[in-house]
Amino acid sequence: MKSRSLPVASFERPLTLRAAAEATGLPYFKLQRAAQSGAIPTYTFFNSRKYVKLSDITKAMSAAS
User: Measured over all CA atoms, what is the biggest interatomic distance in the chain, rounded to whole angstroms?
Assistant: First the structure.
């Protein structure tokens, strides 16, 4: 049985809220509020730290405008 792998271009590295705030130029507390309200999806892996994807943030920003 062959194992299939995803193309590297399809993988997007999740960022912490603080790193995403720095990357987008948005205030940290605004991303935190958006994550708490469910406006942007969050991901939790092995600890309680929340991670987000930049593509999810840009989708939420374009939907809001």
Answer: 48
